[in-house]
Amino acid sequence: MTPWYRHIIDLLYPPLCASCGVQRPLDHHIFCLDCINELPETGFHQYAENPFTSHFKGRIDLKTGAAFLYFSRGGGTQRLLHQIKYNNQPELIVTIGKWYGKQLLQSELWNEIDIVVPVPLHWKKQRKRGYNQSAVFGEGIAEAMGITCQKNALRRSTHDKSLTGMKRLERVQTIGSSFVLVNPNLVKEKHVLLVDDVLTTGATLESCALALASAKIASLRMVTIATGEL
């Protein structure tokens, strides 16, 4: 049952849809009905090979991969990601993670996962934002799937300049060997799900995948909240 004071707070500060930011969300949801009906889901998780996996073909050994939503500038997904990154709403990310985790469970492609590993932020960025959005997303997925999220399995060893606007090769060169395994035994011989917020060039995910592969993991899958054009 909703606490009595929650109703007063909602009257004073009515919750808004996480996508359009205008309409009131449905009860026990983060989106309004219109945005749910127009949610740009990719459906990639239903197919072992899809545009997400093709993006990494020949670069890493990837079992399968998927993104929850399509990203377009000015669209609802961009507004959602902005809230996640800059408006201090970790509970929103957890909800999205649980939602997507339940979808993944409906496909046999994702049933053998042992552990969720989020892409780490450098500690300076995490201190500034207050949390790592990829780690919170991973925790939501792990909770829905009944598995462990090892948010400290990887560490980012350098604080690189912004990667925005760079092409994939430039990003790979900039990132280099930024990601290191803190404890290889955490992931050794495990079926790993690597998670991040957005797939753009894939350079960050590729660097993390190579670090995980050095521990001789059993298999690798990857998911993100959103993806641009692939």
Structure description:
The strands form two sheets. Strands 1-7-6-2-3 form a five-stranded parallel sheet, with helices on both faces. The chain has a two-stranded antiparallel ribbon with strand order 4-5. It has a single domain, classed as Rossmann fold (3-Layer(aba) Sandwich). 37% of the residues lie in helices and 16% in strands. The protein has 230 residues and is of the alpha/beta class. The N and C termini lie far apart (44 Å).
List the helices and strands and how they pair.
Layout: H1 4-12, H2 33-37, H3 51-55, E1 64-70, H4 76-86, H5 90-105, E2 115-118, H6 123-129, H7 133-145, E3 148-149, E4 154-156, H8 168-175, E5 179-181, E6 191-199, H9 203-213, E7 219-227
Parallel strand pairs: 1-7, 2-3, 2-6, 6-7
Antiparallel strand pairs: 4-5
Helix pairs in contact: 5-7, 8-9
At the first level of CATH, what is the class? Alpha Beta
Shape: globular
Helical percentage: 25-40%
Measured between the Cα atoms of the first and last residue, the distance is 44 Å
Q: Rg, please?
A: 18 Å
How many structural units, i.e. domains? 1
Number of strands: 7
CATH names the topology as Rossmann fold
Q: Please summarize the sheet with the most strands.
A: 5 strands, parallel
CATH architecture: 3-Layer(aba) Sandwich
* Strand neighbour order, sheet with most strands: 1-7-6-2-3
Unreliable runs, pLDDT <50, ≥5 residues?
4-9
Mean pLDDT: 83
- The string of secondary-structure elements, in order, is HHHEHHEHHEEHEEHE
Approximately what portion of the residues adopt beta-strand conformation? Answer: 15-25%
Number of helices: 9
Q: Which structural class fits the helix and strand makeup?
A: alpha/beta
Protein name: ComF family protein
Pfam families: Pribosyltran (PF00156)
Domain Phosphoribosyltransferase: 134-226
Family: Belongs to the ComF/GntX family.
